Amino acid sequence: MRKCIRKFPIPLQLSQQGVENMNKFFYGKLAFGNLRKNGRLYLPYILAAMGIGAMYYIIVALTGDEGISKMPGASDLKIIMGLGCVVILIFAVIFLFYTNSFLMKRRKKEFGLFHILGMEKKHIGKMMFWETCMVGVLSIAGGLAGGILLYKLMVLVLLRITGLEVPFGFSISSAGIANVAVCFAVVFGATLVYNLFQVQKTNAIELLHSASQGEKEPRTRWILAILGVLALGLGYWIAIVTENPVDALLLFFVAVLLVVFGTYFLFTAGSIAVLKMMRKNKKYFYRTKHFISVSGMIYRMKQNAVGLANICILSTMVLVMVSGTVALYAGVDDIVNTRYPRDFALTGYNNMSEEEKEALKGMFQQAVEESGLAVEDSVEYSSLAVTVWKSGENMLIEKSGTVSPEGKLSVLELITLEEYNQLTNQQKELKEDEILVSVRQGEEGEQAYCINGKNFRIKEYLEDFELEGLDSNVVYDGYFVVVRDAQVFDALKEMQKEAYGNRASSVNYSMYADISGTEEQLKECAGRLEGLIEAYNQGKGEEEHLRVRIDVKEVQREGFMIFCGGFLFLGIFLGFVFLMATVLIIYYKQISEGYEDKERFEIMQKVGMSPREVKASIHSQILKVFFLPLVMAGVHVTMAFPMMNRLLLMFNMKNPELFAACTVAVVGIFAVIYGIVFGITARAYYRIVGEKR
């Protein structure tokens, strides 16, 4: 008896004087012993905190990297990385608080035992303070070490994805170190305050029995289940029926919130209702493995539902984020070819006169010849983009001060019949009140258009007309309209000028050309042309200058590679963070359920249940619980596909087949990873349940 007492670190009764005279390192040693004893719980938590800390350091360091700042497209990368910093920091706070709740649940019984044996709550608080300090220091130091070591690798990956040159040298970000140290110290401090509050407000008996709380059979909350179905259905409906990309962007977060709330409601209330219906099915329920698993899940679903919903939401975030960014990156060529169908593009603004057009064409030809190149093919045309409110056949050019005009905001792209015939090598004819229409995106089938009271009969719909630059508008419905002559063209131009005043669109002159030569030669040609235009404008003195935009396809491709590559890097980066959180939540869920089920299955074996039947019941329970979030995440992704596809249209990504292929591939890879995690965590569960007492 005396030996047993000596081995126990806490005396049965602690006097106030005895406590004050204790060694000042006593609580630190006790905290270290507690962490080591609970290594199965704390090691994954510390490793996850290190991982998030490393990720946060890397993203902060990338945002402030001086070498990257000097590269082309650095401003876009900084914005993308800055967004990543905010997301990871918010996620770190939520995730560390959430996983801390698992740890507290397992430790409360231990704290209750300490309290009964004579340790006051303030002494338990000191022990918890040292535990938090140790966990925090290990997590922050490990995260910084991992971030510093992995930073160069992440830079190489980012630059490889974006196609930028890799700089030499290795740097350590002082801003990254300070951000990680301060932010994570605050987070761990906040978790300590929360844990102290939890222990302080609970008495010793409640602490001892906290692990078994929530074992009463939950009631079926039909109202919550119905709200969950309605929220989920409304979120799906918004995702499916929203057609306009701008509306999709505005409603995306509304749909996300509805799906999140619906998921939580369904897992907390709907799952219990489904399990009780399974229990009423006698043919299914009265089989050994189903009887045990369904009964156990009903009693624990109240406390497990939030964890399952979190796994589902995190899995959905990983799938949507990674599939979207992979599709965007894989579709860079489609995006560039849509916006810049030829090697060289010139756009002249401010109603260029015929003299100015001829001067621009001459300067372009001069620049091409001086660069030793040759024009292989080219097209040119003048067009006027007019914004209208379309309601059936009626099109209203909104007058200043008009409030809430009826109809759908659309864009008419006007061109004369003469230029259309030149571009298509045709000889079509039109009367003054006739037009030809090509619907780029919007409604088709009207017999006529009434533009601000002026009627135009649609003579023909142009089904196969392709013209460079017309498919770049994906935000609003677009209609390409061919009018009879310059007189009708000018009348519509004056009509919109009267309505919009200084906001009225000008006639744009567009030239698209394919030029033989390398990317460097095309860049040199663009530079020469800019110099010629500048000299031309200087010669004009105070007269109105030429305003010309010059686009080289390969230069634009580089810009899109940087932009889309940055999003891909961030998508994979955040996807990995969310995946890590998903794995940890699954692990803690399996560990917690293992400890809760251990005694229950021991009792079952004592009353005659064979080990084989026990294992079959465990397997059935784990499969139901484990793969339910994955199936639900798959449904979420399927329903989100139409809205995500429309959001990608804002980047001129018009390849739903590619997006679908990327989504299927990402879901498949994620399912494999999810299955591997299932195998690892299931073994941990079996090991706990099978431990001898």
Describe the protein's topology:
Elements: H1 2-7, H2 16-20, H3 26-37, H4 39-64, H5 66-69, H6 74-116, H7 121-162, H8 174-200, H9 204-208, H10 222-241, H11 245-280, H12 282-285, H13 288-330, H14 332-339, E1 344-348, H15 354-370, E2 374-391, E3 394-396, E4 408-416, H16 417-424, E5 434-441, E6 448-451, E7 454-461, E8 477-483, H17 486-500, E9 508-516, H18 519-540, E10 548-552, H19 553-606, H20 611-649, H21 656-689
Parallel strand pairs: 3-6, 4-8, 5-7
Antiparallel strand pairs: 1-9, 1-10, 2-3, 2-4, 2-9, 5-8, 6-7
Protein name: ABC transporter permease
Organism: Petralouisia muris
Characterization of the model:
This is ABC transporter permease. The protein has 693 residues and is an alpha+beta fold. The chain has three domains: 1-211, no CATH class; 225-241 and 254-341 and 559-693, no CATH class; 342-557, no CATH class. It is built from 21 helices and ten strands. It has a seven-stranded mixed β-barrel with strand order 2-3-6-7-5-8-4. Strand 6 and strand 7 form a beta hairpin. Helix 7 runs antiparallel to helix 19 (553-606). The radius of gyration is 34 Å and the shape is elongated. The two termini are 22 Å apart.
Essential attributes:
10 strands, 11% strand, disordered N terminus, ABC transporter permease
How is the main sheet built?
7 strands, mixed, barrel
Cα shape: elongated
Domain tally: 3
* Head-to-tail CA distance between termini: 22 Å
Name the assembly state. single chain
Rg, rounded, reads: 34 Å
Portion in beta strands:
5-15%
Can you give the mean pLDDT? Answer: 77
Strand order of the largest sheet: 2-3-6-7-5-8-4
**Tally of contiguous helical segments:** 21
Uncertain spans: 1-22
Portion in helices: 55-70%
By helix and strand content, what is the structural category?
alpha+beta
Strand element count: 10
